[in-house]
Amino acid sequence: MSGAAWLQLVALLVLLAISTPLLGAYMAKVYGGGKAPGDRLFGPVERVIYRVCGVDPDTEQRWSTYALSLLAFSFASVVVLYAQLRLQGHLPFNPDHQKGVGTFLSFNTSVSFLTNTNWQNYLGESTMSHLSQMAGLAIHNFVSAAAGAAVAVALIRGLVRRRTHTLGNFWVDLVRTTIRILLPLAIVFTLVLVSQGAIQNFHKAQTVTTVTGAKQTIPGGPIASQEAIKELGQNGGGPFNANSAHPFENPNPITNMLQIWMILMIPFGFTWMFGIMAGDVKQGIAVLSAMMVLWLAASFVAMVFEANGNPKLTARGANQAVTSTQSGGNMEGKETRFGPAASGLFAAATTGTSTGAINSQHDSYTPIGGAAPLVNIMLGEVDPGGTGSGLYGMLLFALLSVFIAGLMVGRTPEYLGKKIQGPEMKLVVLYILLVPLAVLGFTAVSLILKTTVSSLHNTGPHGLTEMTYAFTSMGNNNGSAFAGLNGATDWFNVTGALAMLIGRFLLMIPVLAIAGSLGRKQASTASAGTFPTNTPLFATLLTGVVVIVVGLTYFPVLALGPIVEHLVGKF
């Protein structure tokens, strides 16, 4: 791997080292319930919203009411977006005269953006109007991320409060996340992207003549604004089919680095916020360390294997070395302005979170290089995961870790002083098993149906990887895909939507139930026999538990897919 590639990784780590404590401290004040920075600016806006919506911001909710509010908001959101997509052809801001979106595709797309997945079975530039992009999809980029943040904050309150029956107010957490965190950051980064060449207009597509005399269609639209929240909220759905590989979305190496930073900054910031709200920053650092180790491992694998290139091409005499005239490595499916290492780093960031954006085609990666983003998603996207969802996913693994540690020493496990008992562990196991059941179940059925297998453009191990990647991505609310699968069929639109709903709401409900259960408990005082959860030892245990649980779940399909493909190609 070249020195420039290592420099990019170091620069990204420096940016994260700066943003994580600053953003985490700010978010802790936003959710803390007292005075917060920007009250004079944001307070009046929030009060108007509460008054219009009939919300009493001083009233807190039990976990069940919190969950019902989440489900009611989500149901109303998906209905409105579905109607908007179906009626798109009759609505304004449609200069390219896009028709209404089909029934099954509208359903899949609505569920996709509702669940923060942003799986796209359509070509953005030839399917969606400007209004659908900015007032439908982009709005869901904000509120779906805010919903995940609200659930994470509710879980933290359940962990740190004593003998409480309430976890806050869903509507307040939703509004404050959107108004005070996501919107300001999105405005700033939109302006930065525009300054670097990302487009932001209401123009229709224009046909121009190139210098060689060919005709080319140049699309328009509110691109930079959607790009910013797409990355900041770990959404991933781009206005163009090429996503962040498109120069109008991601013009140059500077914006590429900024986009990777945008993808990672809020999830890592949540760990610091957790430490502050827990009254012990080291608790957050332990969780942060486990996330960072897993993410760096995936980054190294993707970057190194893509930078080293395809061994079959080397055997045939192709020069894949880094020279003054070429970036070297495996350049299939990658943009020359980024190169293989930066593409691998982007892939690790977008699949370690629930983003799903791409600046290269994962289907064209080497077998092991392509396995890195797949395994990242299989981890449940806890390294560092999505806005809020990454933190609550890792915290549930932390509960499992202390439970295992307690079994080894014969002591009732505790986390932040709260005893972890049977009811909590049943919900943790439910959380861990639901998505693999959906992913592997839908994958297995799809592989035995002739109509669905025909959607694959490859056979053998690579075809298995493509199918597995698709349902793994949808079930874990990521949204990225291997390009060799045609997902624009009724089967994949429906089963994919079901996988996305399972991966979002059937996980959020157990998380809130755990929060309610822990919140009612009295925290015990730490003693000499208490297993500390703010140490490097616990961070190591947490990392190991994540790897072992996921490995036991998915290793067979990985062995039959990318591992076999790598060995066949090597020998």
User: What's the helical proportion of residues?
Assistant: 55-70%
Between the first and last Cα atoms, what is the distance in angstroms?
A: 23 Å
Q: What is the chains' assembly state?
A: single chain
> Poorly predicted ranges (pLDDT <50, ≥5 residues)?
none
Strand order of the largest sheet: 1-2
Q: Helix/strand-derived class?
A: mainly alpha
Radius of gyration from the alpha-carbon trace, in angstroms: 23 Å
Please provide the ordered H/E string of secondary-structure elements. HHHHHHHEEHHHHHHHEEHHHHH
Number of helices: 19
What would you say this structure looks like, in words?
By secondary structure, the protein is mostly helical. It has one domain. The protein is built from 19 helices and four strands. It has helices at 3-31, 39-53, 63-86, 103-114, 124-127, 130-160, 170-195, 223-232, 253-277, 281-308, 311-315, 339-352, 367-378, 389-409, 422-448, 450-453, 460-475, 490-519, 536-570; strands spanning 206-209, 215-218, 414-415, 418-419. A two-stranded antiparallel sheet has the order 1-2. Helix 3 packs antiparallel against helix 18, helix 6 (130-160) packs parallel to helix 8 (223-232) and helix 17 packs antiparallel against helix 19. The radius of gyration is 23 Å and the shape is globular. The mean pLDDT is 92.
Q: What's the quick description here?
A:
By secondary structure, this protein is mainly alpha-helical. It has helices at about 5-30, 40-55, 65-85, 105-115, 125, 130-160, 170-195, 225-230, 255-275, 280-310, 310-315, 340-350, 365-380, 390-410, 420-450, 450-455, 460-475, 490-520, 535-570; strands at about 205-210, 215-220, 415, 420.
